[in-house]
Design a protein that fits this description.
Blueprint: H1 13-28, H2 31-43, H3 48-57, E1 58-60, E2 72-78, E3 81-89, E4 100-101, E5 104-107, H4 109-120, H5 123-126, H6 129-139, E6 146-151, E7 155-161, E8 165-167, E9 170-172, H7 175-192, H8 196-224, E10 238-240, E11 253-255, E12 265-267, E13 270-274, H9 279-285, H10 293-299, H11 314-337, H12 341-346, H13 349-359, H14 363-374, H15 377-381, H16 387-401
Parallel strand pairs: 5-13
Antiparallel strand pairs: 1-2, 2-3, 3-7, 4-5, 6-7, 8-9, 10-11, 12-13
Helix pairs in contact: 1-2, 6-8, 7-8, 7-11, 8-11, 8-13, 9-10, 11-14, 11-16, 14-16
Length: 402
């Protein structure tokens, strides 16, 4: 083992120090001073030899396992135990740029993720005594403990408990893997054989899991202002749990609150957002446009977090994830089988009922929900387009139809 790495049995002092700075500064200081305290900490915690040692020891995931943030993610073994490490290459000109408004600070997105993971790994500091007890008993299973964070002049990194599920020599890292590699091939067989019993068995387990996950999202939103703003299936990492899988469907996994570089939180009344750096992001953030809602939620200090003026803020992420799940099913099952629309959706009635229950919409409104997918020009013509673009369009048209 390198002298620059050691067994991560507890949190590093870096996370504890950053946690304290976030809590104390947001409680006592103005926005500029908060940023200066955070940046001062980051600049004095640069350790190139440690990073170099970790980099050499890391086995990185392929690009097919990752989103589009540009991060490198892989597995690193430290004293016989495997952890997940996530690294960002930093833009030297942009990393310490100031951006703030009243009761709102904006951070370079790799730093934003370090901040949010430090908060989520120290919930006792940021929650009331009663809420912390609730978190520990009901929701801690959905978060990934961060063990260490670090910086060089060119990179940031964080080390977490290992994620993923291995089944029949296939490694599943996220919900997208589960759906596309396992669920959908099995669902196609069941539909071909009209085996509705097996489909229902899978969906009952899946929807129960999602309901519990959504409760955690609501808890984090109501107590820490959490909105992921990029909750698609590829960004929902998973970990193995102690349950048994159902037949050929892999169901022994827990979805995780993960991939937080574009997430937002609120600490001591101070909103913490990622900073918009691209011209198109800055343009859409400040305008009411059918492609702007994602950018408003993510980057705008004065954002309206109600969706359609009827859905509470925590439902923004949930609706986005629902759309992504149904888009995947539409592309991988509906378009392949070319069933009548009614027959197709009848197979997924248990999942459909979860959408209606969670969003408190009726049958007619649910029809409007899935029609946004079937009528999406962007989805049909440019299937490789960014999720945020066609999800934005779907959200806009869905809200308009309601």
């Amino acid at each position: 083992m390198s002298k620059h790495t050691k067994k991560l049995t507890h949190q590093s002092s870096s996370i504890k120090s950053l946690k304290s700075i976030i809590y104390k500064s947001t409680k006592q200081l103005n926005q500029k001073d908060i940023l200066e305290q955070i940046f001062s900490f980051l600049k004095t915690n640069v350790h190139q030899p440690k990073f170099d040692s970790l980099y050499k020891k890391t086995t990185f995931f392929g690009s097919d396992k990752l989103g589009k943030s540009g991060a490198l993610v892989g597995v690193v073994k430290i004293k016989g135990k495997e952890y997940v490490i996530k690294m960002y290459k930093l833009n030297e000109k942009e990393k310490y740029i100031y951006a703030y408004e009243n009761k709102c600070i904006k951070l370079y997105y790799p730093f934003n993720e370090l901040i949010i993971n430090s908060v989520f790994s120290n919930m006792k500091t940021f929650l009331s005594h009663q809420n912390y007890k609730t978190y520990k008993s009901k929701y801690s299973q959905f978060l990934i403990p961060t063990k260490d964070i670090g910086l060089t002049n060119t990179h940031s990194y964080m080390i977490n408990e290992k994620i993923g599920v291995t089944n029949n020599n296939v490694f599943y890292t996220n919900l997208y893997d589960i759906l596309t590699i396992n669920f959908i091939p099995n669902l196609l067989k069941c539909i071909k054989n009209n085996d509705t019993k097996k489909i229902d068995m899978c969906l009952i387990n899946f929807t129960t899991m999602l309901e519990e996950y959504f409760e955690c999202i609501q808890f984090l939103n109501e107590n820490l202002g959490y909105i992921n703003s990029d909750l698609k299936c590829k960004n929902v990492f998973i970990k193995k749990n102690n349950k048994k899988s159902l037949d050929t469907f892999i169901t022994n996994f827990t979805p995780l609150i993960s991939d937080l570089d574009k997430a937002t939180i609120e600490i001591n009344g101070v909103l913490i957002l990622p900073r918009s750096d691209k011209k198109i992001e800055k343009y859409l953030t400040k305008r009411t446009h059918k492609l702007s809602k994602v950018y408003e939620i993510r980057y705008n200090c004065s954002r309206n977090t109600l969706l359609c003026n009827r859905f509470k803020p925590h439902l923004y992420d949930i609706i986005t994830l629902f759309f992504d799940i149904y888009i995947i099913l539409y592309k991988k099952i509906y378009k392949k089988l070319k069933l009548p629309v009614k027959d197709y959706y009848d197979y997924f009635k248990i999942l459909n009922n979860l959408v209606k229950k969670t969003l408190n919409i009726n049958d007619e409104e649910f029809t409007k929900f899935y029609k946004r997918i079937h009528s999406s020009y962007l989805l049909k013509v440019k299937s490789g387009i960014k999720l945020s673009i066609h999800i934005n369009a779907m959200l806009y048209n869905f809200c308009k139809s309601l």
